[in-house]
Amino acid sequence: MTPLCIAKINYSQNQLHIKPDDLVQELVDGALGNNYPVPSRILYNTESFINEYLTKALFHGVNLAATTDIFPTEGGMAAIVYIFNSLRENHLLKPGDKIAINTPIFTPYLQIPTLNDFELQEVDLRSTEANNWEINPLEINRLKDKAIKALFLVNPSNPGAMAFDKVALAAIKKMVAANPDLIIITDDYGSVIFINLPSVSKRS
Prior knowledge:
This is Bifunctional aspartate aminotransferase and L-aspartate beta-decarboxylase. It contains 8 helices and 4 strands. By secondary structure, the chain is an alpha/beta fold.
């Protein structure tokens, strides 16, 4: 076993409290596909490693690992489809419900909610070039409408590549307090290239 492997096992044991034998068994089983088609979401100990990474890279030290479940997918769009399916199956979103979408946004994200499977009404919360592609807090104020069941956004925006600033995050947090049943669906993808990305999930 290489020094790097030993260091990783020691880290998992000392920092994440994972038994070395359990980790090695999981890694071997995962490499062999020995549990196919189980697990349905993620290997148990692997989730601990990824949560530790997300705490540092996305949540910037705020420990959300204990309350964060991880479900790896084939990509961002697949994840969004799964989320909408889950919200529908659990009756959290029903056909005809309103969802707010921060635009401009990746085009398929505009198309998914209107598919026959979902039939959601879209409320456009628009960011404009005149505002340097930052969302205006006046747009966020529209979330006071209790008929809006969810807020769907990408941070940093795609294609604008603008992360939400502190003013926008504060406005979103205020709206969550005013509309506590509001579901926020956020695609926070930029932490690996944006230093200190203000994560919506962390701030709201």
